[in-house]
């Protein structure tokens, strides 16, 4: 942005990220850089960095090539004019942690396949599914059409891939397609396509809305590691998933634009230990479009007013990424954030190390009562947080982890 003066000159104003100006624009001091190096060294010891990026990039390109070939085959089968077949295009857009640059070892790669509007969605889950299944590199392939966001899951040379599909309301998919343009979803009739588009749109918006992508990535890796170690990284269990944590970290980056990664982590716990919920976390004021699509808005939707921990996506139609948070899991999340803040204070005072932040939850110490069924390999535990009274009941096995709480019937 710029500000014109009466003498004809122009002052270039610094860019403001997010809905408000920065809390601090202080440049890092030597101690901040030292702490960041210590944080990086600690995270490396947890083996959070992916070593097969070259293979993964090659797999994504191979998938896109297969997808483009399939689109041309479908055009020929449908007797589409030759000129349309030649220009049908087709693109695959990775999103999620892979696109954010925080992909961890063994994590899935999420990818959006975009095809022309004259196709039927069903063909993707039948015809393209069969083409994928015929590839010798593909194992454990499954089509889940009934999911909220329909997906094909597969393993390609040991790399787990989740493919979603969306139809673009035009005859071809150009290489320079800009999915952030809201007009992309204007004429999309199928809500499943809108939800599929938004996986990429949200991820790309997050990257565009942080002042320093490299520092954002390091800080987000740290928060993801912490959340996984503390067993609070899961939408399905009523906690927060990857998108929620990414939006929260991005908001801290916006208000501390010049901070190092270690400072961002420290400020993350400080800010959110004081946050007054249910004031929502937003990265930007999303443009109000009249496309008749459902979106999160407490003024319009009465049920949205009851969300405990709203964390709002930065792309139209905006959604709350933390709908599944219940009173019990909300209390546990707050307890863990306060614990993180206390440890970060000690790290600043050089009384603690970063490894203490990432200490895993001691299941049998944390939960008051534990009933173990040895033959079935099932643990049932109750948890009462220090911050509030709701009781949560946890079921764990060697393969899964489930939650039953006093205010949500059952979450798998």
Structural class: alpha+beta
User: What's the end-to-end separation, in Å?
Assistant: 48 Å
Radius of gyration: 23 Å
Provide mean pLDDT, rounded. 86
Give start-end ranges of low-pLDDT stretches: 385-393, 395-412
Multimeric status of the protein: single chain
Task: Tally the helices.
Answer: 12
Could you give the order of the helices and strands?
EEHHHEHEHEEEHHHHHHHEEEE
| Strands, total number | 11
The major sheet is characterized as: 5 strands, mixed
How large is the share of residues in beta strands?
A: 15-25%
* Strand order in the sheet with the most strands: 3-4-7-6-5
The shape, in one word, is globular
Question: How much helix, percentage-wise, in residues?
Answer: 25-40%
Binding site for Mg(2+) 2: 108, 110, 162
Cofactor: Mg(2+); Mn(2+)
Binding site for ATP: 95-97, 108-110, 162, 224, 233, 242-243
InterPro entries: NT_sf, PolA_pol_cen_dom, PolA_pol_NTPase, PolyA_polymerase
Structural commentary:
The protein has helices spanning 30-45, 53-77, 82-86, 96-100, 121-133, 191-208, 213-229, 242-255, 261-274, 327-348, 354-357, 363-366, and strands at residues 2-4, 10-12, 91-95, 109-116, 138-144, 151-156, 159-168, 369-373, 378-384, 391-396, 401-405. It is globular, with a radius of gyration of 23 Å. Strand 8 and strand 9 form a beta hairpin. By secondary structure, the chain is of the alpha+beta class. The termini are far apart. Helix content is 38%, strand content 16%. It has a five-stranded mixed sheet, sandwiched between helices.
């Amino acid at each position: 942005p710029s500000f014109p003066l009466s003498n004809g000159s122009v002052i270039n104003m610094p860019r403001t990220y997010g809905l408000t100006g920065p809390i601090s624009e202080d440049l890092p001091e030597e101690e901040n850089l030292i702490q960041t190096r210590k944080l990086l060294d600690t995270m490396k010891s947890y083996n959070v960095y992916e070593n097969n990026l070259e293979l993964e990039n090659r797999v994504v390109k191979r998938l896109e090539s297969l997808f483009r070939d399939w689109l041309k085959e479908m055009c020929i089968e449908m007797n589409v004019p030759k000129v349309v077949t030649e220009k049908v295009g087709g693109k695959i857009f990775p999103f999620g942690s892979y696109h954010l640059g925080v992909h961890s070892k063994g994590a899935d790669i999420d990818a959006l396949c975009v095809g022309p509007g004259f196709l039927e969605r069903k063909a993707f889950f039948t015809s393209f599914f069969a083409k994928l299944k015929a590839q010798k590199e593909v194992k454990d392939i499954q089509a889940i059409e009934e999911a909220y966001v329909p997906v094909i899951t597969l393993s390609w040379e040991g790399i787990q891939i989740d493919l979603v599909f969306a139809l673009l309301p035009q005859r071809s998919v150009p290489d320079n397609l800009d999915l952030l343009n809201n007009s992309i979803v204007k004429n999309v009739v199928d809500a499943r396509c809108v939800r599929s588009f938004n996986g990429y749109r949200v991820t790309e918006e997050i990257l565009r809305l942080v002042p320093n992508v490299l520092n954002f990535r390091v800080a987000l890796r740290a928060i993801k590691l912490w959340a996984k170690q503390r067993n609070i990284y899961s939408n399905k269990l009523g906690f927060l998933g990857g998108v929620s944590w990414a939006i929260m970290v991005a908001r801290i980056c916006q208000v501390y634009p010049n901070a190092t990664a270690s400072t961002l982590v420290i400020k993350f716990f400080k800010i959110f230990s004081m946050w007054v919920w249910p004031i929502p976390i937003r990265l930007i004021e999303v443009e109000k479009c009249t496309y008749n699509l459902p979106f999160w808005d407490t003024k319009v939707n009465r049920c949205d007013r009851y969300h405990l921990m709203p964390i709002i996506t930065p792309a139209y139609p905006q959604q709350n990424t933390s709908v599944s948070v219940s009173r019990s899991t909300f209390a546990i999340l707050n307890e863990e954030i306060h614990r993180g803040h206390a440890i970060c204070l000690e790290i600043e005072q050089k009384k603690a190390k970063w490894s203490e932040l990432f200490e895993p939850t001691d299941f049998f110490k944390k939960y008051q009562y534990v009933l173990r069924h040895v033959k079935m390999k099932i643990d049932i535990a109750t948890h009462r947080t220090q911050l509030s009274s709701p009781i949560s009941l946890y079921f764990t096995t060697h393969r899964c982890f489930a939650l039953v709480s006093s205010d949500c019937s059952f979450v798998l």
